[in-house]
Amino acid sequence: MRGKLNKKIKIEQNFVGERLDVFATNFLQASSRSYVKNLIENGKIVVNGSAQKAGYALRANDEVEFFETQPQPIEAKPQEVDFKIVYEDQDLLIVDKPQGLVVHPCQGTKDGTLVNGLLARVKDLSGINGKLRPGIVHRLDKNTSGLMLVAKNDFAHVALAEMIKNKTVSRKYLALLEGVVWEDEGHIENYLARDKKDRKKYAVSSEGKLAISNFKVVKRFQNCSLVEFSLVTGRTHQIRVHAAFIGHPVVGDEVYGKAQKGLNGQLLHSYSLQFNHPRTGKSMSFTSPLPDYFEDYISKQKEFKA
Predict the structure, then answer these.
(1) Got the DSSP string for 8-39?
(2) Nearest in space to 146 (alpha carbons), one of 35, 16, 269, 57
(3) pLDDT tens-digit readout, 70-93
(4) Quick one: fold of 5-67?
(5) Which of 18, 36, 123, 205 is 20 to 30 Å from 64 at the Cα level?
(6) Predicted local distance difference test score (pLDDT) of residue 72
């Protein structure tokens, strides 16, 4: 039984040739293609009224039908998750998130997230962002490591969010970029929006939101460059998109650049956080060393020689 028809989409020319599972993943904004593949195999996503394989190449005027594909409810439960708490007081936490850890539950990752771990280890978390994102003031991508702010009550959450909005929280990242970046420092300012062809990506677009990053080169190697990014705004994927925009994608970024053998994702690390405590006004400063896999990759690079 396919159930109730939720949506029927006629394929336009710009989607011709795209795999059915890729198209459906983007349309549903699902975080996992395996979730969508399961829907296809169970007849919940069909083409022209007939079942097709996940790899089916879409044709012009094909009609893709979605049957009862609404995501199932997600509930965040306490779980033991590996991450480090760098600092904690009555109002906030500073956590050091490892690469590969998703920040909060979603359709593709319903448990085993940072939020699940926080619920198991922290008694109180702010409730402003709801039950699936308690305490989360800002996020890091799954494969971006490093420091994050977490609010333990609503007072701290509102104050920290306002500080980020007013650009009084200093957030610095270290990224290893492909190729030699010749400029010693630079300023990137444009607008970012979801990519119209791939809903899991972001792209430079006049229809997007303002995104501003500053960067400076820390060290050059023969085939890559270690670069410090300072965020002025904090858009989704901002550094990764900006790095690709200047022609130097983050090493290991399979979305905006290319995957690298031996790496499990992009070499991007949130290494510095500076702000004034929302209650006491005291200046707070935290740093996180580069993860071992990041340091190991750098150690194998040859020095740049002009």
Answers:
(1) EEEPPGGGTT-BHHHHHHHHHT-S-HHHHHHH
(2) 269
(3) 555 677 889 999 999 999 999 999
(4) 3.10.290
(5) 205
(6) 59
Give the number of other Cβ atoms within 10 Å of residue 101's Cβ.
21
Segments in the chain below pLDDT 50: none
- Domain 74-166, what architecture? 2-Layer Sandwich (3.30)
141 is catalytic: yes
- Model's pTM, two decimal places? 0.78
The token duo for 17 is 């040739």
Contacts of 306 (CB under 8 A, 6+ apart): none
Tell me which of 1.10.287.1490, 3.30.2350.10, 2.40.50.460, 1.10.3720.10 is the CATH number of domain 167-306. 3.30.2350.10
299/285 Cα distance (integer angstroms): 27
Candidates 21, 91, 141, 253; catalytic one: 141
Over residues 137-191, the pLDDT tens digits come to 999 999 999 999 999 999 999 999 999 989 999 999 999 999 999 999 999 999 9
Distances (CA, A) of 171 to 187, 201, 269: 15, 22, 11
CB–CB of 159/92 below 8 Å?
Answer: no
Distance CA 306, CA 303 (A): 10
| DSSP type of residue 303 | B
Q: Domain segments of the chain: what residues?
A: 5-67, 74-166, 167-306
Same fold? 5-67, 167-306: no
Distances (CA, A) of 226 to 96, 182, 271, 276: 21, 12, 13, 28
Residue 272's pLDDT is 98
Q: Give residue 2's pLDDT.
A: 62
For residues 35 and 197, what is the distance between their CA atoms, to the nearest angstrom? 20
User: What is the distance between the terminal CA atoms of the chain, rounded to a whole angstrom?
Assistant: 67
